[in-house]
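Lab notes, practical 5.
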Amino acid sequence: MQRSTTKRQDRLHQDFTAALHLLDKENREPDRWEEECLSYALGAMACDLYLAAEVELAAFARPLAERSPEEIALLDNKPRRFTKSMLRHGLDYVLKRDSMEIPPPAVDQRAVRAFLGASL
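Output from the prediction step:
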């Protein structure tokens, strides 16, 4: 693994942990927007899609006033799926998996970048 990739991965893990600590500090579970962002970021990290994880963690930090009302309305109609505990468990799995010798998934990074560019 390249050194820059490892640094990026470490930073993403730290940012994800900081998001969970923020929720702990505020003594609450993630709202539906935050839950969606964190679950997508976790899935992206698990698949080594670091750009997608960065986008989702940035969206997590977006102030309430800057969130799309349409997206919030759509999310409010969906059931909650993940608690902080579940997200922590997922992060623990990703961190442990990174220490194992598992080949990375075969994903075309250009397709991910094109998708993310279209959705920004």
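Observations recorded by the TA: The chain has one domain: 3-119. Residues 3-119 form one domain.
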